[in-house]
Amino acid sequence: MSQLKRTPLYEVYKDQAKMVNFSGWELPVQFSGIIAEHEAVRTRAGLFDVSHMGEVEISGPDALDLIQRLTTNDASKLVPGKAQYSIMCYPNGGTVDDLLIYRGTDSFLLVLNAANVEKDVEWIEKHASGEVRVRNLSNQMAQLALQGPLAERVLGKLTDADLSSIGFFRFRDDVKLAGTVAMVSRTGYTGEDGFEIYLNPEDAPKVWREILEAGKEEGVLPCGLGARDTLRFEACLPLYGRELSPNITPIEAGLGFAVKPEKGDFIGRDVLAEQKAEGPPRKLVGLEMIDRGIPRTHYPVYAGEEKIGEVTTGTQSPTLKKSVGLALIRAEYAEPGNEVEVEIRGRRLRAAVVKTPFYRRPKK
Fold first, then answer.
1. What 3-state DSSP class applies to 274?
2. What is the spatial distance between Cα 108 and Cα 104, in angstroms, rounded to a whole number?
3. How many domains in the chain?
4. What is the DSSP letter of 130?
5. Residues contacting residue 168 through CB under 8 Å, at least 6 positions apart
6. CATH code for the domain of 88
7. Residues at the annotated binding site for substrate?
8. Which residues, listed in sequence order, are joined to residue 289 by a DSSP beta bridge?
9. CATH number (domain holding residue 314)
10. What CATH number does the domain containing 152 carry?
11. What is the residue-level pLDDT of the chain in tens, covering all 364 positions?
């Protein structure tokens, strides 16, 4: 693992966690255990190191025009202090990456998936024109995510800022937190309430320790990639390389809410507009196993003797205690209630198409 990249927090937790290679980064897959960490986020709060994510700043008079040309959502709706989920696509509608866009006073910050930073920056720069500046800030920022129903209570112990004033998909870039100034957004990737904290890399270890200390009474746990995956999966939040890829469009992945053909031209618009209007050839669906077995990534899905798609993500859901999966299948088989078969270790086992998400956060 000596050639792998490491976040500013590596030295803090390297002896406390099981480490793995994730997209060229040496990252914790678990600390106390995936199930314990998953349950902590669902019932209390959990703290994640997500400093491997990429951050790119786009500024200049033509910054908005570039973002509108590159992304599927309508970034003109953003005002300073607001964030947006969006997607970059190829001309054929396949996905370059999904991302968050934060609008600052005079610039935009794009948050990218770690595995895609280099190709994303190349894609952005390739399409940049006019008065626009593209800066890759990935090595100059650390990112923590505090997720769970008690996240606001815990983080509130470390700041005088009114965190309740930061609404969903809103942010502030002036939050004084544990002796430093951070950008704090109310976004996340777990299906729970919570915050993502962007800060200087040198401040990250101190803030990490102080959040865990502040959350001791509430039972806050450090969490790894394993729980992050099961949490996002239950909430049916897509993972690039699984539910999204150069061969999967955002419409097929059920992300039509983030595709706005009416805003004007953007890369991939024609294909996506047609799929949105007429329906895509494939659809991402939820599967619940009827027979005993766990659907895993790439397991084939059948209707009779015909292969109709494959599983993108599947597991034994820690919250639901059921074997469930997401699968990309031909659209004509995607109606909830339909019965299909998943091939698991050479055996075809019955599963039902079910509505998603598998988990929805309880309303307060």
1. helix
2. 6
3. 3
4. S
5. 186, 187
6. 3.30.70.1400
7. 196
8. 351
9. 2.40.30.110
10. 3.30.1360.120
11. 459 999 999 999 999 999 999 999 999 999 999 999 999 999 999 999 999 999 999 999 999 999 999 999 999 999 999 999 999 999 999 999 999 999 999 999 999 999 999 999 999 999 999 999 999 999 999 999 999 999 999 999 999 999 999 999 999 999 999 999 999 999 999 999 999 999 999 999 999 999 999 999 999 999 999 999 999 999 999 999 999 999 999 999 999 999 999 999 999 999 999 999 999 999 999 999 999 999 999 999 999 999 999 999 999 999 999 999 999 999 999 999 999 999 999 999 999 999 999 999 988 6
Pairwise CA distance, residues 290 & 293, whole Å: 9
- Tokens 């307060």 belong to which residue? 364
Global model pTM greater than 0.90: yes
Q: 145 with 46, same domain?
A: yes
- Residue numbers in the known binding site are 196
Q: What are the counts of helices (DSSP H) followed by strands (DSSP E) for the chain?
A: 8, 19
Instruction: Please indicate, yes or no, if residue 251 is contained in any of the structural domains.
Output: no
Do 221 and 145 share a structural domain? yes
Containing structural domain, residue 192 = 10-50+141-234
Six token digits for residue 181:
């100034």
249 in Cβ contact with 94 (< 8 Å): yes
Task: Note whether 178 and 122 are same-domain residues.
Answer: no
Helices (H), 71-188: 117-127, 151-156
* Gap between the Cα atoms of 277 and 9, Å rounded: 46
302 and 355 share a domain?
yes
Residue 38 to residue 192: CA distance in whole angstroms: 11
Residues 76 and 209 in one domain: no
Q: Is residue 191 part of a domain?
A: yes
81/200 same-domain check: no
